[in-house]
TrEMBL record:
Residues 19-148 form the AAA domain. It holds the Pfam family DUF4143. This is AAA domain-containing protein. Residues 201-347 form the DUF4143 domain. PANTHER family: ATPASE.
Length: 406
């Protein structure tokens, strides 16, 4: 399945002297997107000799993990009289990859595409060398819309949108797990492989972590507390009290490593009255709920936080910058900003209970501006408006039938 939003993002920069960098968690579809783009080049008359594709996580390319060898291999394949399209998959596996990348960038007949599973891919020296000369395309696993499209293409038995949603959050949104739909054992076996690759290759090996058990304990804590405020001190105190002694700086490093590999996303706190970020505490959301269920077991008792997690990811897909809000003593789930607007958003599984509805709406009280207030729930047949606060059904939002409008 072609993921048109991401495909068009790459297409917009084709043949432009700018490096295209695809980033995102492992197995979210970066390599497939790259292969689809290469196929589209061939269909438009580009010859196979003009395309160089290297997967650095392939054992056959182990020698290319040394940057001199990588550059020599690519250089030998370039045609002098034509545009060359160079694709390097999981480029961060090559130490000092920025050196051949900079040289290739300066070749006028090279159109360069990279993928990476680490958020620090363009930090440090590479960012300095290539400042203003690259674009990043951040990929996530399937949106709910993409998931529905994929199960339709795979001719799965028809279900209601709500039934599909609960499968979506149970098995997760990694593209391959869709093919394993309803086969819990196979899906979680696959996700366990993805998880172990991230833990071993992307974190433990990269950062030379010897006690992986502590790292996994941190992951489990953060998965259990997705959508809650979370600090390194709270985690270290909890682990120490349970008999796994660890220091706060160690936990802080591990939390950063999880962000690096896109396993979790940190959401900073925003004071809606002071219009400033509060640096002392953040919430964390996870890239794929299937990984959470594989690790902790599927529990349908925490669907409120799971829904909040899905809304957060959808807001990112829609290119919002997302914060969690503080309004005096009240907490607002999301403050979503883009270049033209800002939205205050509360998320709840249901507000059919009157006290719950009052609590959710109270968070919006006395906000000192007129930006839209949105309540998102799984409920149907509720009022579409509560005194100026717009009510949106979550499934309508996730399927694109309801949009945030300023």
């Amino acid at each position: 399945m072609v993921r048109n939003t991401y495909f068009q993002s790459i297409e917009a920069f084709k043949d432009k002297q700018v490096i295209k960098v695809l980033t995102g968690i492992r197995r979210c579809g970066k390599s497939v997107l790259m292969e689809q783009f290469m196929q589209s080049l061939l269909e438009r008359g580009v010859s196979e000799r003009q395309i160089t594709y290297i997967r650095l996580d392939d054992l056959d390319n182990e020698l290319l993990l040394e940057y001199h060898n990588l550059y020599a291999f690519i250089k030998s394949a370039l045609l002098e009289d034509r545009m060359n399209y160079v694709f390097i998959d999981e480029v961060q596996l090559c130490k000092d990859f920025q050196k051949p990348v900079e040289t290739l960038f300066n070749c006028k007949n090279v159109d360069l595409y990279l993928t990476g599973s680490n958020a620090d891919l363009l930090s440090g020296e590479l960012a300095t060398l290539l400042s203003g000369r690259y674009v990043t395309i951040d990929m996530l696993p399937f949106s709910f819309c993409e998931y529905l499209e994929c199960i339709k293409e795979n001719n799965f038995p028809a279900q209601t949108t709500e039934e599909n949603y609960y499968d979506y959050v149970k098995f997760g949104s990694m593209p391959f797990t869709v093919q394993l739909k309803k086969n819990t054992e196979s899906a979680y076996q696959y996700l366990n492989g993805v998880y172990n690759t991230i833990i071993v290759k992307d974190i433990a090996r990269r950062h030379q972590i010897k006690d992986v058990a502590v790292l996994e304990a941190v992951i489990k804590f953060m998965f259990q507390n997705c959508g809650n405020f979370c600090t390194s001190k709270k985690i270290s105190d909890t682990l120490t009290s349970s008999g796994r002694k660890t220091s706060q700086p160690t936990v802080e490093n591990y939390m950063h490593f999880l962000e690096e590999c896109f396993l979790v996303y940190r959401v900073e706190r925003y004071d809606v009255r002071g219009k400033e970020l509060l640096k002392n505490i953040s919430k964390y959301y996870i890239a794929d709920t299937g990984l959470r269920n594989m690790l902790l077991g599927y529990r349908n008792i925490d669907m409120g936080h799971i829904l909040e997690n899905q809304i957060f990811l959808e807001l990112r897909r829609q290119h919002f910058t997302v914060y969690t809000g503080r309004n005096l003593d009240a907490e607002i789930d999301f403050v979503a900003k883009n270049q033209t607007s800002l939205f205050y958003i509360q998320v709840a599984e249901t507000v059919k209970d009157e006290e719950t509805l009052k609590r959710e709406l109270a968070a919006f009280k006395n906000i000192p501006d007129s930006y839209p207030r949105i309540l998102i729930t799984m409920d149907r047949n509720l009022n579409s408006d509560f005194n100026g606060i717009r009510n949106i059904n979550a499934l309508d939002f996730l399927t694109g039938n309801e949009k945030l409008v300023f």
